[in-house]
């Protein structure tokens, strides 16, 4: 778990405490009963051989350190298992001469030429886990700017996303960045790295600041430099590197995951398995509900904003995607265009009705009821999103109206087909380990060819046709009053007459919603 600073005698005490803690249940069983308990502890030779073979197979397939704990053995009683882990950690706490630090600490890049928009140093937050060979690098999101006017406006109103001058010294991780096993059951013990977004270029730029009054756009170079520095902190011995991100950071994952894999291979680190986790970064280059001039980030159509931005940023895209869209490299910023060209495995997390997508499409869900034309547009958006994700083998796509998920404290509560996102990611981890040893190829089309184990599906997408038809969706609040809205209130606001449809069917509205969702 965490590294401990102890002397030899204290270490012996800690080991003794650990032995007593782990062996106590067995000793208690022995004390209560003679032969029957002895048979339970001393298993038949054949059963021991089978267990040894199973362990050897798991280490061969998954890697001895792929997972800090064997969760597959305790899935039936995970809550109790987590309590035991926390009790063990607390019992070992007095043995440590140092406080178990749960926070990520700020490090500015040593290469001072790689900067934020305003020329201030770029950097990253890190919480190391010495016993783990798994690394999670998270790319922050936060929209973009695409010309001098929009960047000047962004600098006045969102300076934290363009400068490091007021960054805090520490950050506390939440969701998949949380160090708490009850909030983050499968990644809590990984080495955590949070890379703040201060380049405004969807993590694509490679342009330095040439004039004092101008801006630098170095998102792609920031990722490269962070990886280079992490190689001196243990990344060189890693087994798995998960490049994750939300919103613009999610798009940044799609643009950079192959670059990170190639960077490590070119430096001789062939043993590191590089994967991507793109959250809320799968945007569509569709037509707006109502066309507006490209005057600011919010109202500018996605295609036009990216066309202008990629030139202004000196943006880079994956080479394979660039070759597929010569002269139209801007298309590589859209998930369904870039994903088929990627070599690294990527898990896609996407709300079927993404709030940021609706915003740039000029659908603004304020206190006023949605018009019929807007309602049809929203439904069509869900259908388009579902269509573009059809060939993605590993994904989690709830039919909710929201934006970003993996760093939310409630990320474990959302379910698709009865499966939570942490569970789906764990299934994906396991399937990649199996496929890695079954195939020599590393292309997306070779990944996940082995069918997932029963109860461990990877292609998770709701089929119900309107926002929040999934009962596990996040709480909805009225944007004017801030009050919570029930699903029925929300759907009525969206122009859907739940009561009328339920009355026609002769059932309770909630029963109708439940029945419709069960078919998802």
What does it look like?
Belongs to the pectinacetylesterase family. Notum subfamily. About 35% of the residues lie in helices and about 10% in strands. It contains 16 helices and 16 strands. The protein has helices at about 10-30, 35-40, 45-60, 80-90, 150-155, 220-230, 250-265, 300-315, 320-325, 335-340, 355-360, 370-390, 420-440, 485-495, 500-505, 510-520, and strands at about 105-110, 125, 135-140, 170, 190-195, 240-245, 275-280, 345-350, 355, 395, 400, 415, 420, 460, 475, 485. The longest helix is centred in the N-terminal third of the chain and has 24 residues, at about 10-30. It is globular, with a radius of gyration of 25 Å. The model is unreliable at about 1-45, about 55-75, about 95-100 and about 440-450 (pLDDT under 50).
Overall form: globular
Distance between the termini: 39 Å
Number of domains as seen in the coordinates: 2
Backbone structural class: alpha/beta
Strand content: 5-15%
How many beta-strand segments?
A: 16
Instruction: Provide the CATH top-level class of the largest domain.
Output: Alpha Beta
Strand order of the largest sheet: 4-1-2-5-3-6-7-8-10-14
Low-confidence spans: pLDDT under 50, at least 5 residues?
A: 1-44, 54-75, 93-99, 440-449
| Fraction of residues in H or I helices | 25-40%
| Biggest sheet record | 10 strands, mixed
What is the count of DSSP helices, taking H or I runs of 4+ residues? 16
Could you tell me the radius of gyration in angstroms? 25 Å
The overall average pLDDT, rounded, is: 81
CATH architecture of the largest domain: 3-Layer(aba) Sandwich
By CATH, the topology of the largest domain is Rossmann fold
GO molecular function: palmitoleyl hydrolase activity
Keywords: Signal
Family: Belongs to the pectinacetylesterase family. Notum subfamily.
Protein name: Palmitoleoyl-protein carboxylesterase notum1a-like
């Amino acid at each position: 778990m965490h590294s401990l600073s102890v002397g030899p005698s204290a270490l012996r005490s800690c080991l003794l405490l650990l032995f007593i803690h782990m062996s106590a249940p067995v000793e208690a069983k022995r004390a209560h009963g003679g032969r029957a308990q002895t048979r339970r502890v001393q298993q038949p030779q054949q059963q021991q051989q089978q267990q040894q073979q199973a362990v050897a197979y798991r280490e061969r397939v998954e890697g001895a350190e792929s997972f800090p704990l064997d969760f597959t053995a305790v899935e039936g009683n995970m809550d109790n298992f987590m309590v035991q882990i926390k009790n063990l950690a607390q019992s070992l706490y007095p043995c440590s001469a140092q406080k178990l630090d749960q926070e990520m600490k700020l490090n500015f890049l040593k290469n001072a030429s790689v900067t934020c928009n305003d020329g201030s140093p770029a950097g990253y937050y890190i919480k190391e886990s010495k016993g783990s060979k798994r690394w999670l690098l998270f790319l922050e999101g936060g929209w973009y700017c695409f010309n001098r006017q929009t960047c000047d406006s962004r600098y006045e109103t969102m300076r934290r996303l363009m400068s490091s001058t007021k960054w805090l010294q520490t950050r506390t991780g939440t969701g998949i960045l949380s160090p708490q096993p009850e909030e983050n059951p499968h990644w809590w013990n990984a080495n955590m790295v949070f890379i703040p977004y201060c380049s405004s270029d969807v993590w694509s730029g490679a342009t330095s600041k040439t004039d004092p009054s101008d801006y630098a756009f170095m998102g792609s170079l920031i990722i490269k430099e962070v990886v280079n520095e992490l190689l001196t902190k243990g990344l060189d011995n890693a087994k798995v590197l998960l490049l994750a991100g939300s919103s613009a950071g999610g798009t940044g994952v799609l643009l950079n995951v192959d670059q990170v894999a190639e960077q490590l291979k070119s430096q001789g680190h062939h043993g590191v398995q590089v994967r991507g986790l793109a959250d809320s970064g799968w945007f569509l280059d569709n037509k707006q509900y109502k066309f507006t001039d490209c005057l600011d980030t919010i109202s500018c159509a996605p295609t036009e904003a990216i066309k202008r931005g990629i030139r202004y940023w000196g943006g880079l895209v994956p080479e394979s995607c660039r070759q597929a869209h010569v002269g139209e490299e801007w298309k590589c910023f859209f998930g369904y265009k870039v994903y088929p060209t990627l070599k690294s495995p990527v898990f896609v997390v996407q709300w079927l009705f993404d709030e940021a997508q609706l915003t740039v499409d000029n659908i603004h869900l304020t206190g006023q009821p949605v018009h019929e034309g807007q309602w049809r547009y929203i439904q069509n958006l869900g259908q388009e999103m579902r269509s573009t994700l059809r060939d993605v083998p590993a994904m989690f796509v709830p039919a909710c109206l929201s934006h970003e998920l993996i760093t939310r404290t409630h990320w474990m509560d959302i379910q698709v087909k009865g499966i939570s996102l942490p569970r789906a990611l764990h299934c994906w981890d396991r399937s990649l380990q199996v496929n890695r040893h079954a195939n020599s190829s590393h292309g997306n089309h070779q990944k996940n060819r082995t069918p997932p184990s029963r109860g461990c599906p990877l292609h998770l997408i709701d089929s119900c046709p309107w926002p929040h038809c999934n009962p596990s969706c996040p709480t909805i609040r009225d944007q004017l009053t801030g009050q919570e809205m029930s699903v029925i209130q929300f759907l009525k606001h969206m122009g859907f007459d739940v009561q009328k449809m339920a009355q026609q069917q002769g059932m309770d509205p909630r029963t109708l919603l439940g029945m419709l969702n069960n078919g998802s």
